[in-house]
């Protein structure tokens, strides 16, 4: 290998290391590096950032106040990184910065959760702005016309495809056919996890296919890793990351096991009204997080882990529980307003820097 090649390889490695570095190196403060994901929740009486009753069309799954949640303290926590400050979300400056741009969330209902929160945040900043809504499946699109900013969500449970064939519904772990609808966006925020362990009537496929091999089932974590790897290869082969900023959302944690917050025996989040005290680094991460991290490490293009797992783990109080349109216990999704507003504050901080 010639000198030039070696220099090239060195530069490539350096770039890779910078891109994959888990922290977002913003301003250094207190001698520490600004990692937006390391910190704690602090009570802030100036929160929430908006009144959810003024946000049009919050889905019944997430509209906790409308469906009877009476404790409101969960709306009053602000995320405080340990070594720096997040700027308060400012919808006008968001829209101005992203003028002419398209932002898309791609994934399951957790993506929809975050999209909905972002729409509420922006709508509350510019309530008079002209918006165009294009609803539907799989793409819902919300355009702030005066700013030419469109925020859309593409619903896909696994990112990889499910196709209906003679034998039934086949989950194709090595195929992403929708990629062409995603790759021209300016910002892409991916997510998938919720559905990988679904079984029984809720499982939306009958067979799994990898290459020529068709199986009835397989180790689900392995399936997740394989599907993610297909996604990773798709990014490497198809996405121009000079144009499109690509983020992958960390696993969104659920709260069905009180052992996580020193209340063994508790099996849901129904009685939770405050976050878990302490710092995001105290609880262990779910196993799927490590699979995601290892796949992201193999992507050669620039992809950012949007690492909301640990900070959300502290928010046992952030879920709808039974305060949703169907009154079913839900400790998986998040109330809007609520925790996803913080995700969007962090998203904003991480894509403008
Ligand atoms: C994500 O953030 C948590 C909490 O700060 C940290 O423990 C974990 O290592 C981070 N993951 C990566 C890949 O940086
Ligand atoms: C963060 O905000 C606090 C309170 O306003 C302030 O005292 C502190 O200096 C700020 N830190 C940084 C790094 O800006
Ligand atoms: C969303 O709507 C705007 C305005 O009609 C359009 O320009 C944009 O391409 C749409 N985005 C998607 C992802 O459909
Ligand atoms: C991205 O930009 C870099 C530096 O400007 C350039 O070397 C590289 O070829 C670009 N990649 C693509 C896919 O255009
Ligand atoms: C809750 O988590 C603990 C510790 O990880 C585990 O031992 C226990 O089996 C879990 N409980 C349930 C009901 O899954
Ligand atoms: C959590 O912190 C709050 C405020 O510092 C305190 O009032 C509360 O007692 C703490 N709860 C636990 C379980 O440590
Ligand atoms: C990452 O790439 C290495 C080297 O090609 C491979 O051994 C490893 O299995 C890959 N990891 C994942 C999670 O795909």
UniProtKB/TrEMBL annotation:
This is Uncharacterized protein. It comes from Trifolium pratense (Red clover). The lineage of its organism: Eukaryota, Viridiplantae, Streptophyta, Embryophyta, Tracheophyta.
